[in-house]
Amino acid sequence: MAEKSKIDQRTGLLNGFAAYGMWGLVPLFWPLLKPAGAMEILAHRMVWSLVIVIATLLVMRRWAWAGELLRRPPRLGLVTIAAAVITVNWGVYIWAVNSGHVVEASLGYFINPLVTIAMGVLILKERLRPVQWTAVGVGFAAVVVLTVGYGQPPWISLCLAFSFATYGLVKKKVSLGGIESLAAETAVQFVPALVYLLWLSSHGSTFTAHGSGHAALLAATGVVTALPLVCFGAAAIRVPLSTLGLLQYLAPVFQFLLGILYFHEAMPPERWAGFALVWIALVLLTWDALRTAHRTARALRAGLETSGAVVATGTVGATRGADDVVAGSDQPVEARP
């Protein structure tokens, strides 16, 4: 049993690295789709993603959720909002990468946890611990430094961070699995995207104008969207949420390194200063989360032992509870760039 658990954790870690690695390396893919513009790429991504997830669900025979979703209009409304918000996120990200703003796009996903916490305070009236307040304050200072450096606020980063944080907030209310959620959201996106592509076909579409290789790459946007999500799902059920919470930083780190080393984007001193402040805020946030998780797990174990509960079962429950604290939400957010 212990050996099987170790194998499961190893498999989960590999899938986690694969998921966040692919999300981190995706800036290498979008430029391959030129001369297609960001809107055309986005529309193809919506259409082909639905094709891929429907094929996946057919193989997995997981359709019960669809009927339940259709019978609950408020929940369906939330899915529509999530689809709209992630459309903005995807569109801005694709445009940013293909316009030479990979580093600024990576910043959006670095500051996303801070924006999520701020939204929790403002919208959900959550109470923060002192270290969390400090992290949010340092993050705000970073935005001020970057604003001075750019001569204007880092709009791309802020748009990506706020749209993804909003998406996470809505997803928390919807509570659907990764593949199911992507299927529902792309189903909402499908008709507008298809109408746009049909209109574009008579107004300069690149899908058929640049050979079969280009068309295949546009169709591959569905795989690029769905494959990391499948790996993420395999990781989420095998490793603690605290581990996933730490792995999530791999994606913006890879994007940041690609922006500097591969795309050769400029990094003046004020930009380094802004990023350094963001990283300090994330270190504070992670340290506080790990410390709180450890205390919570220890308290739960002590309580279960005192009440005479089965220690092994209690340890599992305590660990899961601690993992939730580190993850910062009831369930992880799956969709990525």
How would you describe this protein?
There is one protein chain. The chain has 337 residues and is an all-alpha fold. It has helices spanning 2-25, 38-60, 64-70, 73-98, 102-122, 130-150, 155-174, 178-200, 211-219, 221-236, 241-247, 250-262, 269-306, 311-327. The longest helix is centred in the last third of the chain and has 38 residues, at 269-306. It starts with a helix and ends in a 10-residue tail after the last helix.
Notable characteristics:
337 residues, mainly alpha
Q: Which residue ranges are poorly predicted, with pLDDT under 50 across at least 5 consecutive positions?
A: 309-332
From the alpha carbons, calculate the radius of gyration and give it in angstroms: 21 Å
CA-CA gap between termini: 37 Å
Write down the secondary-structure element order: HHHHHHHHHHHHHH
Mean pLDDT: 85
User: Roughly what percent helix?
Assistant: over 70%
Shape: globular
Number of helices: 14
Structural class: mainly alpha
Report the sheet-strand fraction.
under 5%
Oligomer: single chain
